[in-house]
Amino acid sequence: xxxINYSINIAQSTKDSSFADYLFSxxxxxxxxxxxxxxxxxxxxxxxxxxxxxxxxxxxYNGEDYNEYIxxxxxxxxxxxxxxxxxxxxxxxxxxxxxxxxxxxxxIYSLDIGFQDKPFDYDKELVIGLSYARLFKWDDAIxxxxxxxxxxxxxxxxxxxxxCMNHSSNYxxxxxxxxGILSAVIPGAGYIYCDRIGTGLSAFVVNALLIWALRDAIxxxxxxxxxxxxxxxSGWYIGNIAGSSEAANEYxxxxxxxxxxxxxxxxxxxxxxxxx
Length: 276
Fold this sequence. Notes:
Layout: H1 18-25, H2 29-42, H3 46-62, H4 66-76, H5 84-100, H6 104-114, H7 122-134, H8 138-150, H9 155-169, H10 176-185, H11 189-193, H12 197-219, H13 223-266
């Protein structure tokens, strides 16, 4: 499991939370949540409680329970709006959680809206840029990374990301149309074109057997059987064409996302790997 060491180091100053903090530091996130909730129950200090509440959110995020963090943020966001630091960090983790759930448009929208009146934020622009990259909107991704570059923040990292984006934008993708046509002419050929050789050979054998069975039934004047074979066989044949087209899209997605992940590993941004 990829552990993200996010913590705003606020609980250390809260004496009553020392055990919860210890559990947090040991990656015992769900046990820590129970202790933080107990601390909140015992406290009447609203400022302290909002910080403890944020620690609960960090437990969900660090534990990679992104669905739970999304729910947590949506239910508790009003409690953070009076603390600029907590409001910003909780919102950013919300967008990152959407990113991890592959809701890239949601991540972009939430940051565009939530950070509208705030100054430049590196993490915000990074998440938006990477979200556009995962959507294969290379021009938008490049624009956001160039914006970061112009701020002279982590130039080496940004340069590597820009190289990746430019390389990806010039990628010669497998054509779903070509894959479909190939499988229409020779069943399974479209799969082989997409490097799915086993699936392609299976599709070829199944369709060949169905064609042979149909021919044999017609030769023997078994017209009822031939009609049944033609009906079911046409489904296999059409499925082979549609499946080949989809295989081309899946191939492109994998190649492009693997390229992004390779760059993220190289620049130390493993938090944003496409692992979910």
